[in-house]
Amino acid sequence: MGSSWAAMSRLLRRSGFGTTGAAVDTAMGAGPQAYVSTMLAADPNQDPGALATPVPTFTAIARPGKDATKDERQQVNQQYAAQAATLAQWWIRRMIAVDQPFGEKLTFAWHNHFATSFSKVRGAQLMAKQNATLRALGRGDFHTLALAMLTDAAMLRWLDGEQNTAGAANENLSREFMELFTLGHPTSSGGYTETDVREGARALTGWRIRDDGATYLNPRLHDSGSKTVLGVTGNLDQTGFCSAVLAAAWGPRYLATRWWGQLASDAAPASGVVDALTHAYGPQRSLTALFTALFTAPEFDQGAMVVNPVEWAIGAARALKVPATDKSVKQLAGVLRALGQLPFSPPNVSGWPSAQAWLSTASADLRLRAAAAIVNSGDVSAVTSASASSRLDVTAHLLGIATWSSSSAAALKPSIGTPAELVTLALNTPEYLTN
Amino acid sequence: MDTLTRRRFLIASGVAGGAALAAGASAVTWEQLHKQAAVAPLPSDSRILVVVTLYGGNDGLNTVIPYADPAYHSARPELAYSESDVLRLDSALGLNPAMTGLAKLWTSKQLAIVRGVGYPNPDHSHFRSMDIWQTASPAEPLNTGWIGRWLDATGDDPIRAVDVGSTLPPLVVGARCTAASLDVGKQSPLPASSAAAFTALAATSSGDTAPQRQVRESYAAERKVAATFDPVLDPSAPTSADEAPAASSAGGQNNLKGQLDLVGRCVKAGVPTRVYSVSLGGFDTHADEKSSQQAQLGSFDTAVSGFLTDMAADPRGRNVVLLAYTEFGRRVAANASQGTDHGTAGPVFVAGARVKGGFYGDQPSLTDLNAGDLKVTTDFRAIYAELAESVLGIDPGRVISGAPKPLGLLT
To answer: Which end of chain A is least crowded, N or C, by CB within 10 Å?
Structure first.
């Protein structure tokens, strides 16, 4: 990674949600290496902003019985919807509140990796628990995290694991675990087979969810016969299955490639970059080592990516110090839903789209209107109090942008007299929308 | 006429003002605007393709139901529909009871059902299989969709194809061009100062990165899209912020009816768009399938049959051909959760006033299976190639490779 101001801004933006010139100035004092190791060492649960925004507690909602009336069913649906809104708004609040944004950014990226949605899970208790697990285990060893996801209540409900029974296996979790979470889709050069999927499903039979959200193995529903997954034969259970899958030689390369796409660049990494990240990850399956290698790779500076709606909207709210009132948080949730990235509601198990998919003509309109609303509840006094001739520079510094291109400067200039409009447009420049 | 001038024209004519829109956007058609604006509307005899993607892998055997086959009932006793449940098509097959609208289209010979559709070496991954359907490339991954390649081959204007939604599916992404997208909840045009800023931000700068160029291109495209579609905005449309996410682990949107209403307004207004893409999710029925699939098929049926009835009464609408497909069917046998796991071949629907109704392709056997899965009888590329040629008017070899001979779906 480079040591320039622009390189530091890039590092802060990719490891957080947007940034500010002031944050970049501060980080320049420590230097990029120290910044990366400090951010990876910080406990996200001890961040002052996290302590100020505790997770709400949720009680399980009784499912309507078979004879429930339409009204009773509707009432239950409303309870679920209210819980889902509360949890999404809590996370938005947390993302805005934290001092060091990396912990929440990483948790959000893991949420995208193990994408699970309210649309089927429904209970907020289960979604909140998965979120806490991702935050707690997201920088340890990958085996621990992956195994935790295989017996996670929200995941079991999402991918029909709780319906997976000896004698009639449900393949959903087994397949997506291999294809999306650990190994990547099989290619002509190798990968898992349909037989591995079916055998893996047998290993995962019998897991059920208790009313309080805890999961347990019901031995009567578990297939205890011999299975073979990726060449490993035995009476495999979830641990044996997880170990057999993670032992596949190409898994770490898939993981490194997917994380490069999440945090460094829209373009696929060169093979040498994947080598370096895989080497750092190593036999320990160390996620902290993987992320350190990623953020400090020489190629990190050559990457370029479209920022996703969460990075964009939360970044704007943080930079403009939008107060986390109920109204503004609800508004941000509405913005994220309209742009297609409401937390806890990914479109499918492969997570959100990326890159150019965020740049549709429909989203251009939606983003511009959303930016005006965010600016309206934010603080642009730094721009207002600056002289007209310095307002472009002050706006850039406010948003942590190193410099405006000639095209963007020309587009911003007509709005110099109207600070709110100027910042609204600045949030829609190619400089702010990519990184 | 450049986009900025056109924008001024729209404002000057009062169409872009909130009051005019509130009075009823459909009162002013794009064609009427065109008389003064000198930009051609779609010729009234142009055929229009509407692609409906059903995400999640719809269970074809409980959609076009082989009710008379004992093997169907024995493979999925709790999921099967009896002869008295189905909407009978012939002595062997019937539609799901939720599909009353399509049953009427069948009777009026405007619904073609292609049976046993798939591709060689079926893939059981939602994402890979959906990529195969959208790129029309079963053998190797491609980064262009078949509609995207049609865009690449036929010009520069992004409004030739429109996707309804805020994120673009691979279907409509080409190497050089991508489709425009419309937000079903957009109620009013952007203010003039914002519009001018987009035009300015669309100008390239020498140091642009690849993603920065993509942002600028999206602004140039947005200006063209606004100039074309703002006249058909619906000020009462529910905004996308109100919409609940789709209930599925495999993608797709809700509110197919709202999406098709928007398409219908565009078609009737004479907007120069040849391809529309819409979607519905919720078909990944691993568990408790019967009621959830029936509800989704009911939404599909109401939206599609309402849309086609509306289109049949409009001179341009009569040229609409609707294609509905999903990434795969499901396993013949039910699993233990009253659902079905990922399978292979399934039915494809092609419907509209220009369609020759009836069955095409052979119904796969329920007993001669491949590892529990139906054997594909009809290659999906045969359908695409025919639509490319007969609806989009292009040599199919330019967008679809390896297509078998056409099935003769259109009049």
So the answer is: N
